Amino acid sequence: xxxxxxxxxxxxxxxxxxxxxxxxxxxxxxxxxxxxxxxxxxxxxxxxxxxxxxxxxxxxxxxxxxxxxxxxxxxxxxxxxxxxxxxxxxxxxxxxxxxxxxxxxxxxxxxxxxxxxxxxxxxxxxxxxxxxxxxxxxxxxxxxxxxxxxxxxxxxxxxxxxxxxxxxxxxxxxxxxxxxxxxxxxxxxxxxxxxxxxxxxxxxxxxxxxxxxxxxxxxxxxxxxxxxxxxxxxxxxxxxxxxxxxxxxxxxxxxxxxxxxxxxxxxxxxxxxxxxxxxxxxxxxxxxxxxxxxxxxxxxxxxxxxxxxxxxxxxxxx
Length: 318
Fold this sequence. Notes:
Layout: H1 3-19, H2 21-40, H3 49-55, H4 69-79, H5 81-86, H6 95-112, H7 115-120, H8 122-134, H9 136-141, H10 143-147, H11 163-179, E1 184-187, E2 190-193, E3 199-201, H12 204-207, H13 209-226, H14 230-238, H15 240-260, H16 264-274, H17 276-294, H18 298-311
Antiparallel strand pairs: 1-2, 2-3
Helix pairs in contact: 1-2, 6-8, 11-15, 13-14, 13-15, 15-16, 15-17
């Protein structure tokens, strides 16, 4: 954002405050309430919700990507800035219903000491405030950024439920290795060389909740910005688990290949720690390819093929 744009935004914001003093005061009160209940009030293990969540966004909990959610939320609001400027702004009392749902989730979470429920109330609270203060159009424009806040919820508690992904990826890598003549065998989620010279365990962090959350976040942002039709958004987002599996399988397979080449310590050490750079290109490539296939217009492809065929010169060999 340039200095001129920032100045214009600030001037328009001040004009709105001057023309709607009651709403401006209400908005300030709502913001202060958010800060107090989510950032100051110690409810969970003597910690505010924000601090409790920050601790669970550390790498050892396999969900450090959630630290990016607030920044992504602000980016999406900025991305829709032109639509927000043009949208009619008329408050709607139905927003109080969403605010009520969010408040109930917060209270239930506080009473049951389940901070995740309080965080689950954030999308309802944000959507409700938008609907109540500025109306349906603004709330609809920012519906996805508000819903994106669900990625703030730490999901490490369900990590054990993702153990099936470990077996799926172990099986895929074992078969890929067999195709290339790399002799390995699987014991549970461990892949070992037949000669016993090396072996690797597919842990939860390698194939479970970490990659799944990261990929679903990226896929959600991608379909929101790129795709226009709802069924395509739902389809691609629903396939985000498959993207994560393919990306992880490709990454772990490269580890097996490097170990086979005679560098098992390097493969299981430095390369393993930084091989996330392999996962994301593979997973993102599959995601983009899926999007391109869904947007492929068969009629145009057939017409182009027929046109090329008709332009080809026929030659005869005698």
